Amino acid sequence: MPHILIVDDDDAFRESLAETLGDLGHTVIEATGGREALECLGSSAHIDCAFLDFRMADMSGIELLEQLRAMPERKTLPVVVLTAFATSDNTIHAMRLGAFEHLTKPVGRGVIAELLRKIEASNQGPSADVQPAPEDTLGDDTAPRLLGTSAALREAQKQMGRAAATDSTVLISGETGTGKEVAARVLHDASARRRGAFVAINCAAIPADLLESELFGHAKGAFTGAHMQRVGRFVEANAGTLFLDEIGDLPLPMQAKLLRVIQERELTPLGSNTSVPIDVRIVAATHRDLGAEVAAGRFREDLFYRLNVIPIHLPPLRERPDDIITLATHFLALAARRSGISRTLGASAERRLLAHAWPGNVRELKNAMERVAALARGPLATDDDLAFLAARQVAADDLPGALLDLPLPEAIERLERASIERALQLAAGNRAEAARRLGISRQSLYTKMAAYKLG
């Protein structure tokens, strides 16, 4: 991949990246902004790959990517979007527009080398054109969002962005409370079907004898009490998205009927002889292991494969601890806004939140913050205001084996150093904020940083 375009208005970062790429044997073309980049892209210059910064003075990396995808000769150009502050919105939007990857700064040399290897390998075969959706509404504050920037969640966000550029069926898996319906709504809003309806149904909440009518509708007189014709959820979702939550709880007889509708793209309402064509994008979700359900004979294998076209897994909150404080702050602000009483999280409250195992995942965290907003005794929520959370006992199995094998003083030193580095990272280098997060004085932090030669 000899020719690479770098677009970034941060001179220091652009030059550093250019030097790295040059050392790796690539020819680099530099642009200080979107307009200069468009001139390069619109010329006859040969470009094999582009690195775009998300935030630039003249236009954002997303705006540049949208214009790039409108160029017939650049529709399949591999693009890497770089940002100092990753969000659900910019990650999903970038991937929906066909970005090869979305990375947060700074980016190490090894990561860049491996990424370029993947790009080169993926370009050995034919590529399909990427068709961006006609409009973007992801910046709407009322839109559902999957908040968080942890590595585990960002993988799910990237998969959602790629899936949004297609019309394929999606199967979302994850524990109860991880936000599967929110993910389905985000996927719908990012897709070309956003103008259509988003219709959700919980397959576990509808009695088995009513499910067929609920999904497919019924004709007048189809059964006792059917005094009028009713369209089902499939028809309501026509031209939009149908979200089938808890699909793993669907009874076997209904699984066979659902399979036929998915295959034929038409349905017959209960008590009718007339087939109705449907045009829906199906997004299913489950907290169950459908592979195990298939093996146990409780879920049809053919339906599983029909649904599992694009699998997306939402990690439990315990696997994304970096997102806990971000989510808690967001939920607390929302709850406080409704109550009209301002609340913020103190350092002791944050430590209690990080110590909790969150078996109920994001839903449990949201409920906890509503409780804090209503019952906290002051504007600064403390550890006492979260006493209702059971502290998680850290077992030896939760710690890395390499740490447990060290002499105790060395193990403590490594853990303390890692905690300080993480606090500084979360505080964007603000030492006062890092000290607050760690629950120590600034002077103590300065002393420890000097001892560990940090900063």
From TrEMBL:
InterPro entries: AAA+_ATPase, AAA_lid_NorR, CheY-like_superfamily, Homeodomain-like_sf, HTH_Fis, P-loop_NTPase, Sig_transdc_resp-reg_receiver, Sigma_54_int. Residues 3-120 form the Response regulatory domain. Keywords: ATP-binding, Nucleotide-binding, Phosphoprotein, Transcription, Transcription regulation. It comes from the Bacteria. Signal peptide: none annotated. Residues 146-374 form the Sigma-54 factor interaction domain. It holds the Pfam family Response_reg. The modification 4-aspartylphosphate is found at residue 53. This is Sigma-54 dependent transcriptional regulator. It comes from Paraburkholderia kururiensis. The lineage of its organism: Bacteria, Pseudomonadati, Pseudomonadota, Betaproteobacteria, Burkholderiales.
